[in-house]
Amino acid sequence: MRRGVRPLTSSQRSTLGAFLAVTTLFFAWGFITSLIDPLVAAVKGVFTLTDVEAQLSASAFFIAYGLVSLPAAVLLRRRQAGASILIALATMLAGCLVMLVATNAGSYAIVLFGLFIVASGITILQVAANPLAAALGNPKYSHFRLTLSQSFNSVGTFIGPYLGATLFLEGVHVQGGAAVTEAARRNALAGIDSAFLWIAGMIAALFLFFFLQRKRVDRAAPAAAADVSAGVGATLRETMKSPWAIFGGLAIFLYVGAEVAIGTQMALFLNSPDVWGRSNAPAEIGALARFMQLDGTPGVSLQEAGRAVSLYWGGAMVGRLIGSALLARFNAGWLLAIFSTIAAAACAYVALIGGVEAGFVALGIGLFNSIMFPTIFTLTLERSSASQAATSGLLCTAIVGGAFIPVLTGSVSQLAGYSFSFSVPMVCYLLICIFAIAAVRAKSPSRAPAAVVLH
User: Fold this and answer.
1) In 221-293, which residue ranges form alpha helices assigned H by DSSP?
2) Domain 11-441 part of CATH 1.20.1250.20
3) Which sequence ranges are marked TM in the entry (predicted)?
4) Which of 28, 167, 184, 223 could join 171 via S-S bond, C-beta 3.0 to 4.6 A?
């Protein structure tokens, strides 16, 4: 044994094991959430939907955050972390089984119901796992643990769209209202069925793993007295008394809405004739052509465009690494203002200028999304007069923006085209910039910043 290196105690080994177990959950929910992007493109063709109807897939998923976040917080107050995680995984598994029924029945309505159930489980999982990852170990290294856990989440969001495009979009075409052949429809439904069958297996394995590890997780988790008196109404009333909690909730609503709206429409946007649908520009970049698996035919198919969506989320993954370094050196409010302004400018370019180059600009927006969620979260927690638990609950509820902004964006794309629909997230980013400037100008925080997780 090297001098100066102390062996881990039994308690430290148990805590480390619990942390590693919880970290596996971050990958799982990142992977599942990012499958929504290719799924929106797939159901549009498979079920012959309008842009608005296709975006209901995102709405069914993200509306769970609005309905389940605060009840999940109450659940966590009343039960131990291990039990809450098991309830979350069981709910997700039930949702996957509903998705299998939906694909075999060929019913879009059941697809929406299944997505809502899966997302409800993910919401409970986030409420339980996020603070747990921060607390499992020395408080001095809580930010490091959260960043490490979220790196696995980012890997999941990077892989999900690529695999989803490969499974869901083969032979699916939506340009000019093109009809999807019955063979392509069957292949797409079979791909969705296969994906959720494998996800169900993964969740079942995680459930068994956490059932065996639940005592270790509960022992390692920080002790907290069960609060059976805390309810949804009391928590909501507390946050409504804090202007900064409301302001921050609005900013989270707008950010998640913009991020999801861009991601869910990205494949359709890149596949459109005005962007890459009839262009060979991506083929001229060797690495990009190989990543998208371009088949050499003129233009970019919907499946090839769907693979490129991974680069949008990959930009956020890289941006988190860069952003973490920048946030350690510069004022968080000003960085948020700069990043949101650049994102708004990129959206303006896509909406007003468009063209082949707009495809590359749109993919780059993910890089500037990277720091927004945690920075908004932290700035709000620092300034809110409500408790951190109540404020966090409201901010998680505000993720429901992912249910509404994409539908609005789909309405605009239906009327004015995919490029101009970027005007909706552009407005969202400009309003986030206003929030950032207001946070900089506000009085000094009344309490120390809390550790937060990245979305």
Assistant:
1) 232-240, 243-271, 286-292
2) yes
3) 16-36, 56-76, 83-102, 108-129, 150-169, 189-212, 244-270, 334-354, 360-381, 393-412, 418-440
4) 184
Residue 90 has pLDDT above 70, yes or no: yes
Q: What is the pTM of this model?
A: 0.84
Tell me, rounded to whole angstroms, the distance of Cα 328 from its chain centroid.
24
Query: 285 is written with which tokens?
Result: 């970049």
Spatial distance between the Cα atoms of 110 and 392, rounded to a whole number of angstroms = 31
Angstrom distance (rounded) from CA 278 to CA 298: 6
- Helix or strand or coil: residue 138? coil
How many Cβ atoms are within 10 Å of 429's Cβ, its own excluded? 26
DSSP 8-state secondary structure symbol assigned to residue 418: T
What sign does the dihedral 440-446-451-454 (CA atoms) show?
negative
10 Å Cβ neighbour count for 386? 22
Contact 309, 405 (CB under 8 A): no
Residue with tokens 């805390």: 230
3-state helix, strand, coil in the chain (%, to 5): 80, 0, 20
CA–CA gap between residue 295 and residue 120 (Å, rounded): 38
Rounded to whole angstroms, the Cα distance separating 419 from 372 reads: 23
Residues 123, 62: Cα–Cα separation, whole Å: 9
Tell me the three state secondary structure of residue 81.
Answer: helix
Distance CA 249, CA 432 (A): 11
Query: Minimum mean pLDDT among 92-106, 167-181, 190-204: which range?
Result: 167-181
pLDDT at 143: 47
Distance CA 301, CA 177 (A): 14
Q: How far is CA 59 from the centre of its chain?
A: 13
Give the tens place of pLDDT for each residue, 194-247: 999 999 998 999 899 888 877 776 666 655 544 545 567 776 787 788 889 899
Query: What pLDDT does residue 148 have?
Result: 64
Determine phi and psi for 7, rounding to 5 degrees.
Answer: -65, 150
Which string of DSSP letters, residue by residue, matches 153-209?
A: HHHHHHHHHHHHHHHH-TT---GGGPPPPHHHHHHHHHHHHHHHHHHHHHHHHHHHH
Residue 382's Cβ-count burial label (10 Å; 0-12, 13-18, 19+) is buried
Q: Is the dihedral of CA 295, 297, 298, 299 positive or negative?
A: negative
